[in-house]
Prior knowledge:
This protein is of the alpha+beta class and 139 residues long. The protein has one domain. The protein contains 4 helices and 9 strands. It has helices at residues 77-84, 88-96, 116-130, 132-137, and strands spanning 3-8, 13-17, 31-36, 39-43, 49-55, 69-71, 74-75, 106-108, 111-115. It has a 6-stranded antiparallel β-sheet, with no helix packed on it. It has a 3-stranded antiparallel β-sheet with strand order 7-9-8. A hairpin with a 5-residue loop joins β4 (39-43) and β5. α1 packs across α2 (88-96). The N and C termini lie far apart (40 Å).
Amino acid sequence: MLSVIEFDRQHDLAYILIRAELRDKPGAVKRSQRVGDDIVLDLDADGQLIGIELLNASSRLDLSKISEGPTELIVGVKEAAAMLGVEKSNFIRDYANKAEFPAPVAELASGRFWLRSDIHRHMRDKDTASRPEFKSRIR
């Protein structure tokens, strides 16, 4: 899912614009909803996601590796399933609905959305935990 990201490094904020066509369009955001300590969703009049504001952005993103502008920072169900190499229906059952899987940054009528970095971290952690040398060290 292509989005545009903007940073305010001085205040440790990141804004991920999901619907780039609404950039700088006055009145596009009809309501903002805080869904976590550091996540605010901007929604249009129909409740569709426009953007995601991350407070304390450096705690969730490696800001030194991300540049402002177009990026695929946010993924939906389809993209997350592809990252894991599974079908969408299997992804929901086998990953997204499990407690150990990262919580979505947004869950709306149009679907769930995750930070790509959270899914990569989950994949890396799962891979590390399954290695025999790692298992032997944690016993």
